[in-house]
């Protein structure tokens, strides 16, 4: 067996200095006076003091020269002992036996979950076993030496291991080049004896030489000898035609003389057989657990030592390479049914010194790694070197799918099992037990590079989905923990007007929380509470539109103040299934929004929130309601009869049957803030008219809500909107409303309106807001410069715009922009800072500082002669902008178009007006049109086709002498 010393053995082995151990509890002040300590002796000095240890050698005395170790055996309880009793000299051998944990690890029985070989199933599996680390280490040293010899002698073809538990006997043999059977000229002993019977001898002390073997520190196989009752070395030296056999006994203190015979057949092998001193490990026998552990290490060699047959107890192990070795773990990685079986993915691109396999873990990182055939059970820098690359590849996809930017690298790493076999030059380890490699990656002598194919295979293994599920599970756990105890009597939430009996057991079921759209609606509710009182009614205003919770991460939910507040007010606990409202602060939830399209959307978002996060609440009768108010009131001029309408289509249908202009006064309620205190009291005094209960949800209702708010179902929304019929409205004369009716007859109106205002018309290229701006500019008496803020106010007034002047001001600014990348033809003149190509509209000045007017070219494109034939819309009995303008050239191509609606979206680049005109002329002359490419005024780069409906844009950059890029 080739050890740390073989035919490459160097004679510059070192002797250790004297070692002084003062003991953990020594008290120097209490110790007797001592003579000054002798000066430290340097190594390899002829004056170095030595101890002669007598050993039995077939009837005559020989000496084994070991370094002297000075041991302080003092303890705090030994203060009365003499100097001679406290401080004792020990040889290196005695020190190893006295302090074995320093060299081989613990000599006590430990219980740990480890990978072992299951002989019955022929697999490697994890099992909780009892074993002694020190005993395991001394056997492992001999196994690693056998593997090392394959590196030194590639011609070696086998390793044979025999384990006999009954006889307490282990034998390890290889047929590599034998140890030189010759006397060492300096030490005057045969080389095999020097290697296996003398401490601190090694061929690996030269750190300048790059080696990829396991031995390094000069102990190695000698530790096996030290901890054995009998240790036999046999080797055949083909070169010298000799065979050598020598027996060591009693923990290497008895050295038998070697038996040297002729090797006439020219054999070469090294065979180490030994009987571990079980008493030193507090054992009486080798048990099944230990045998399974050692068998696993033998199988390790079969996977780690290439082109070498490995035999165990006379049977050839059927493992030819590292991939086959990793497959032994496959069955042990199964989880239940076949479909959950964990596949081991092998990196076929990894060659040379690195081989890597991957498998999914159960949420806890695991690794099976080998450095120069040493089993690094606790990993180390080589494992991090591989794992970090995989984590870096997976992190962007995990972040994207989990919608969580705070997923830590270790959380990704926890979902993988790595199998790594590598050869590292002169590796260093945390301890002599070599369970953790510490060498920095830059000194490996080689590096592993994650291949694209392997990385993609890992990404498709299901690990990303596993991590995302784990992230969501942890987020939900955290949310549940945060939500616990929310059945509190009082809450400190801004703008909440809590019901007096909210959270009061027995009375909480009768309490109603009214969620309103904005503060003005809250004021209306507070006015109405003079009718119903505050004992059982609470109100909470939300700002704008509630978050669509269906497709967001739990991390986003936890950051959203609106969601957190609603959950706290209602007393909801994340993940809890409710069968009644007994545990809630409020027994009913009432939604009160404007009766316009956006109000319907907010209503839908609240229903979506409950269905997505607390679906069981929608199975409780009477939990969810809506409070409706009129959007239009018609008052008869003579009789003063009042007719209220809750939807625009309902009013329009009624108006066709009545002479509304001559007999009725019409008032539009644009929002809840339009109603006064008297109206509020009227609303709350007639709950049978204004309070509508939603029926409990059925399968159809849930499918419709999911279809409307699930981002992945855009195609389904397209199909849904094709069923739209103008004039539809929900019947509010019923006491209970089915959610499917709300979706198909109210939420659909919002979706259609969303498309109309978000997606430009193909006729004039305008969205409604842009069309209103052009209409307002044309209606102005004189085309003089006007402040953008004033123009926005004017436009909103004459076109019945319902979304605020600030939105109109932004539209005006966009229509006046003329920097590169904006409009090819700006219809309004920019006077002031309207933005730039670097930051778009973000750098525009405030609307009160900007001026604009119609460009001269605008009325050439939108000709005044067409004004009389346009179809002008009517809103609130006033004529407003036309359905669309009719430009003389398609402006949807000139300035492009983009917009995202419900189920539909559009994106059209800008084109050159000249190219457009040329094609129009060709069309008018019945000539084939030519394909146009996008064009932006002022852009000096090149735009060229790169595929069907795709274009590549190449810009121009100027590098100044100072290396600045313009």
UniProtKB/TrEMBL annotation:
Homodimer. It is an enzyme of class 5 (isomerase). It catalyses: ATP-dependent breakage, passage and rejoining of double-stranded DNA. InterPro entries: DNA_Topoisomerase_II, HATPase_C_sf, HATPase_dom, Ribosomal_Su5_D2-typ_SF, Ribsml_uS5_D2-typ_fold_subgr, Topo_IIA, Topo_IIA-like_dom_sf, Topo_IIA_A/C_ab. Its EC number is 5.6.2.2. Residues 1-73 are annotated as: Disordered. PANTHER family: DNA TOPOISOMERASE 2 (PTHR10169:SF38), DNA TOPOISOMERASE/GYRASE (PTHR10169). The gene is TOP2_1. It comes from Rhizopus azygosporus (Rhizopus microsporus var. azygosporus). This is DNA topoisomerase 2. Residues 1-10 have a biased composition (Acidic residues). Belongs to the type II topoisomerase family. Residues 759-966 form the Topo IIA-type catalytic domain. Keywords: ATP-binding, DNA-binding, Isomerase, Magnesium, Metal-binding, Nucleotide-binding, Topoisomerase. The active site is at 849 (o-(5'-phospho-dna)-tyrosine intermediate). The keyword Magnesium applies. GO terms for biological process: DNA topological change; resolution of meiotic recombination intermediates; sister chromatid segregation. One of its GO terms (cellular component) is nucleus. It comes from the Eukaryota. Control of topological states of DNA by transient breakage and subsequent rejoining of DNA strands. Topoisomerase II makes double-strand breaks. The keyword Plastid does not apply. Residues 511-625 form the Toprim domain. One of its GO terms (molecular function) is DNA topoisomerase type II (double strand cut, ATP-hydrolyzing) activity. Its cofactor is Mg(2+); Ca(2+).
């Amino acid at each position: 067996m080739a050890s740390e010393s073989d035919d490459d053995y160097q004679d510059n082995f070192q002797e250790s200095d004297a070692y002084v151990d003062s003991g953990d509890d020594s008290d120097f002040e209490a110790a007797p006076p001592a003579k000054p300590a002798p000066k430290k002796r340097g190594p390899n000095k002829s004056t170095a003091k030595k101890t002669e240890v007598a050993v039995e050698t077939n009837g005559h005395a020989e000496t084994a020269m070991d370094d002297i170790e000075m041991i302080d055996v003092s303890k705090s309880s030994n203060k009365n002992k003499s100097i001679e009793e406290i401080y004792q000299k020990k040889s290196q051998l005695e020190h190893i036996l006295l302090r074995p944990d320093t060299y081989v690890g613990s000599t006590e029985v430990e219980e740990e979950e480890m990978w072992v070989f299951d002989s019955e199933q022929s697999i490697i599996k994890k099992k909780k076993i009892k074993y002694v680390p020190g005993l395991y280490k001394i056997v492992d040293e001999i196994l690693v030496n056998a593997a090392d010899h394959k590196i030194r002698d590639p011609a070696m073809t086998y390793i044979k291991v025999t384990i006999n538990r009954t006889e307490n006997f282990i034998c390890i043999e290889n047929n590599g080049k034998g140890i030189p059977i010759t006397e060492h000229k300096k030490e005057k002993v045969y080389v095999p004896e020097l290697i296996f019977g003398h401490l601190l001898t090694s061929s690996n002390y030269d750190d300048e030489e790059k080696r990829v073997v396991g031995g390094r520190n000069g102990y190695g196989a000698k530790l096996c000898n030290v901890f054995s009752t009998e240790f036999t070395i046999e080797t055949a030296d083909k070169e010298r035609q000799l065979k050598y056999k020598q027996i060591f006994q009693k923990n290497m203190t008895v050295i038998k003389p070697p038996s040297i015979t002729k090797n006439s057949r020219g054999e070469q092998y090294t065979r180490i057989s030994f009987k571990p001193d079980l008493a030193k490990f507090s054992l009486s026998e080798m048990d099944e657990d230990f045998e399974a552990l050692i068998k696993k290490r033998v199988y390790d060699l079969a996977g780690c030592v290439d082109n070498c047959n490995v035999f165990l107890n006379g049977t050839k192990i059927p493992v030819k390479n590292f991939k086959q070795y990793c497959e032994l773990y496959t069955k042990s990685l199964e989880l239940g049914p076949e479909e959950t079986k964990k596949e081991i993915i092998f990196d076929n691109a990894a060659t040379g010194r690195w081989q890597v396999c991957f498998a999914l873990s159960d949420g806890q990182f695991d690794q099976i790694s080998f450095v120069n055939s040493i089993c690094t059970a606790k990993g180390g820098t080589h494992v991090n070197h591989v794992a970090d690359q995989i984590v870096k590849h997976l992190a962007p996809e995990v972040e994207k799918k989990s919608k969580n930017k705070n997923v830590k690298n270790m959380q990704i790493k926890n979902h993988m099992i790595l199998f790594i076999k590598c050869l590292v030059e002169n590796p260093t380890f945390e301890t002599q037990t070599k369970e953790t490699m510490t060498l920095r990656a830059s000194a490996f002598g080689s590096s592993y590079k994650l291949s694209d194919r392997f990385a993609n295979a890992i990404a498709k293994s299901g690990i990303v989905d596993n991590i995302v599920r784990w992230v969501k599970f942890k987020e939900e756990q955290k949310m549940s923990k945060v939500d616990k105890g929310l059945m509190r009597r009082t809450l400190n939430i801004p703008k909440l007007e809590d019901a007096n009996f909210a959270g009061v057991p027995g009375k909480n079921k009768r309490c109603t929380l009214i969620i309103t759209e904005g503060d003005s609606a809250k004021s209306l509710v507070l006015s109405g509470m003079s009718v119903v009182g505050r004992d059982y009614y609470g109100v909470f205003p939300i700002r704008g539109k509630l978050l669509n919770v269906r497709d967001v991460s739990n991390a986003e939910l936890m950051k959203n103040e609106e969601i957190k507040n609603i959950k706290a007010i209602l007393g909801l606990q994340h993940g809890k299934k409710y069968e009644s409202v007994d545990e809630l602060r409020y027994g009913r939830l009432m939604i009160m929004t404007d009766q316009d399209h956006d109000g319907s959307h907010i209503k839908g978002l609240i229903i979506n929130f409950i269905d997505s996060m607390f679906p069981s609440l929608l199975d409780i009768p009477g939990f969810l309601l809506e409070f409706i108010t009129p959007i239009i009131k018609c008052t008869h001029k003579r009789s003063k009869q009042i007719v209220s309408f809750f939807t625009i289509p309902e009013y329009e249908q009624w108006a066709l049957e009545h002479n509304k202009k001559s007999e009725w006064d019409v008032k539009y309620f644009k929002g809840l803030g339009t109603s006064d205190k008297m109206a509020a009291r009227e609303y709350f005094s007639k709950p049978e008219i204004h309070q509508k209960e939603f029926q409990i949800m059925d399968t159809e209702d849930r499918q419709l809500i999911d279809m409307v708010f699930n981002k992945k179902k855009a195609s389904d929304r397209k199909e849904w909107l094709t069923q739209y019929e103008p004039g539809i409205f929900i019947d509010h004369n019923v006491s209970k409303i089915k959610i499917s009716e709300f979706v198909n007859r109210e939420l659909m109106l919002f979706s259609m309106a969303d498309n109309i205002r978000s997606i430009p018309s193909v006729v004039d290229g305008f969205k409604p807001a842009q069309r209103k701006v052009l209409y307002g500019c044309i209606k102005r008496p004189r085309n003089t410069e006007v402040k953008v803020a004033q123009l926005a106010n004017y436009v909103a007034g004459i076109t019945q715009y319902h979304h605020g002047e600030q939105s109109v001001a932004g539209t005006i600014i966009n229509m006046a922009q003329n920097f590169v990348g904006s409009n090819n033809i700006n219809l309004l003149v920019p006077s002031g800072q309207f933005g730039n190509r670097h930051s778009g509209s973000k750098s525009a000045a405030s609307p009160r500082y900007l001026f604009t007017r119609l460009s001269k070219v605008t009325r050439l494109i939108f000709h005044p002669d067409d004004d009389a034939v346009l179809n002008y819309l009517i809103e609130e009995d006033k004529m407003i902008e036309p359905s669309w303008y009719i430009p003389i050239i398609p402006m949807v191509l000139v300035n492009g178009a983009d917009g995202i609606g419900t189920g539909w979206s559009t994106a059209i680049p800008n084109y050159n007006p000249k190219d457009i005109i040329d094609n129009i002329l060709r069309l008018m002359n019945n000539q084939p049109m030519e394909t146009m490419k996008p064009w932006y005024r002022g852009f000096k780069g090149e735009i060229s086709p790169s595929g069907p409906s795709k274009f590549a844009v190449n810009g121009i950059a100027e590098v100044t002498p100072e290396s600045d890029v313009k």
